[in-house]
Amino acid sequence: MKVLHVITDLDVGGAEQQLRLLLRRLPAYCEVLTLTGPGPVAEGIEADGTPVRHLGMTGNRDLTALPRLAGLIRDGGYDLVHTHLYRACVYGRVAARLAGVRAVVATEHSLGDAVIEGRRLTRGVRALYRATERLGTATVAVSDTVAARLRRWGVPEQRIHVVPNGIEAHRFGFDPAARALVRTRLGLPLDAFVVGGVGRLVPGKRFDVLVRAVTQLPGVHLLLAGAGPEREMLRRMAEQFGSGDRIHLLGERDGAVDTAAAGRGAAGPDIPGLLSAIDVLVSPSPDEAFGLAVLEALASGLHVLYGSCPAVDELPADQAPGARRFGLNVHELGTALRDLRRRGPGRLPVPPVVRRYDITRSAEALMSVYEQAVAATSARRRDPAVVPPPQGRPAALPAASVSLPDPSRSPDPSPLPNR
Fold this sequence. Notes:
CATH topology of the largest domain: Rossmann fold
CATH class of the largest domain: Alpha Beta
Number of helices: 16
Distance between the termini: 27 Å
Strand order of the largest sheet: 3-2-1-4-5-8-9
Number of strands: 15
Structural class: alpha/beta
């Protein structure tokens, strides 16, 4: 089976890292195409042996992107197209149908109750999603929570497949030597109580709550790994509370897989090293689609305080005894951190939830979705909705199949999220 993965970009992020992990295990020949830019994860994917191409899309108003994408899909002779992230799902589904590829799978990585990939869910965003989703064969939800949201949007039950995200648990095992090394390099006392956070520094992640809580705990340090528009605000907040020397903003760090950036000698710890160095991970986001950072921390034997984590919340409590949910409240978080500090340092056994989300299981489940999608579309070829025209031109969508909203008439003049 020949598969093309279409993704908006390959910057460091959960969806991008998850794609690289899956590509290492899928028993299919895969290629990757980014819409807007390669990003650092592209180098790692290419180093693994998967070809990566870049469409060079300049923005939501780039009218040449759709026909160019359709041409690349048609010329590639793919059996299936798999799209990731909102913009790639919208353009990729339409382009695949124009190119005559009927087996189209889309993964919904980041659908929240009120936001998608950090952008507010407007009428324009919803309309484009619903219109183009009908062109797909299957929509993959990374959790039961996301699947329920898709149903509320009107996605038919028979097209929804739950394939949870996965991790390479062995990479995150606790390493005492790494703990000492990271603390020494960052100038942290070896006996200090250290809190960690991992994620994009954007308003929806609510790292402001975490920073404020730590500033109220004398002697406690925070290692915050991630980049984003709130970095400077968080730095100023730490300075304002007189805690600039205890709040360490580390920037983007290597996460689920080894990246080329780490190979170039990027300063600071990777995520496994950071998790070994800290005593508790806090994930304050109140609206997550899965919760990869929480799982990685549990794989390191850490206590975890979180605002939202479907990967844990959808299972019985005994599957992740070290994980505890808290409300979006500085006082409540501070109280929980004080309690953990009083208990002293120590690692927990790796809980059952970690084994449940092994990346190999995720790849096997996704391959099953591929096989079903290809089989279903092959069975319908005698009565195709899209007939490839002669002379190799892109197929035309039937007029009744979909009506895409005109962005210029939408209440939101730019309905596509940046990703």
